Amino acid sequence: MLLSDLIDLIKKGNSKFISANIVDDINIENAASLDNAKKNEISFLEENNILRENLGKTEVSAIITTNNTEILNSLKLLKISNIIVENPRIAFAEVLNFLYKKITYNQGIDHSAVIDKTSRVGQNCYIGPNVYIGPNTTIGDNNYIFPGTSILGNIQIGNDNIIHPNCVIYENTSLENHCVINSNTVIGSEGFGFIPQDGKWIKMPQKGSVKIMSFVEIGTNCCIDRPAVGVTFIDEGTKMDNLVQIGHGVKIGKNCALAAQVGIAGGAIIGDGVILAGQVGVNNRVKVGNNVIASSKCGIHCDIEDGEVISGFPAMKNKSWLRSSSIFKKLPELAKKLRQLDNK
């Protein structure tokens, strides 16, 4: 695709195009990271990116960047074409979609799929090989359900969803519109509910449901449990990385981001716009307020107010954690001095 044509597409996108400077209107064949980019490739550069220090070493043909005078002067001296937008990351994401077309699948139901006669599949769907759709299930229009997926009974799936290979969706689950469920994820499995009695564990039946709203994306190998009663709920726009565990009866708000290996115990409530970094753990029945940010490996054991930035185990305000962590390595020396004082 010619660079000028790519710029025309970026202008129509959501990155808020400002201007462009074309040194050579060459064909852009690929997108790449700045440190690995070659001729006929495009990359992006944000103001705080450490790679800006190595601009002189890149062979890239075009860079998407911000309206930063220092960066633009460097690109002019290096004779690198540039596209100036308010959000280079969004523009680069759009470029990836322009340059790399998705594999298309013919609409229809594969002959090896098994669909219960009480269930209904909408229009323009792709149902891949060895898919199972159980009784009393409704699949809306324009859905892509890839090979090996099992959709058990009494399930409602809306429109324009993508369910990747080998997913399992248990009974009493509902999935609204424009969601993406990546491979090997399990939705609606039994919550971890057992009652101790006489040294043994008595199973609490898990008869609740899972409800997932629109524009939710779930990574690979995630588990979302159903509760004994009630609903495990994920609101619209929330995104989950791989290997995330959502316990029974959890409520997650809108537009949250959960990184890999996050674990949320049963009954916890997560507000809107919450960011949980990798390996964050949330205790059962804890309430996390809106727009909270929890850094990696944070252990959340108590309620967190709106807008807090927290770190550590147990979780505390990030500034307090940074001050505390700077002291940790000095603790043996401090303890020795305290013992010396006690002996005086």
What does this structure look like?
With 344 residues, the protein is α/β, with parallel strands linked by helices. The chain folds into two domains: 3-99, MurE/MurF, N-terminal domain (Udp-n-acetylmuramoylalanyl-d-glutamate--2,6- Diaminopimelate Ligase, Chain: A, domain 1); 108-322, UDP N-Acetylglucosamine Acyltransferase, domain 1, CATH 2.160.10. Helix content is 16%, strand content 30%. It has five helices and 38 strands. The protein has a twelve-stranded mixed sheet, covered by helices on one side. Strand 20 and strand 21 (200-203) form a beta hairpin. The longest helix has 12 residues, at 88-99. The mean pLDDT is 93.
Instruction: Assign the CATH superfamily of the largest domain.
Output: Hexapeptide repeat proteins
- The mean pLDDT is 93
CATH architectural category of the largest domain? 3 Solenoid
Provide the spatial order of strands within the biggest beta sheet. Answer: 6-9-12-15-18-23-26-29-32-35-37-38
Total count of helical runs of at least 4 residues: 5
| Name of the top-level CATH class of the largest domain | Mainly Beta
Q: What does the largest sheet look like?
A: 12 strands, mixed
Determine the N-to-C terminus distance. 80 Å
Low-confidence stretches: none
Write down the overall geometry.
flat
Rg calculated over all Cα atoms: 25 Å
Strand content: 25-35%
Beta strand count: 38
CATH topology of the largest domain: UDP N-Acetylglucosamine Acyltransferase, domain 1
**Range of helix content:** 10-25%
Number of discrete domains: 2
Query: What structural category do the secondary elements indicate?
Result: alpha/beta
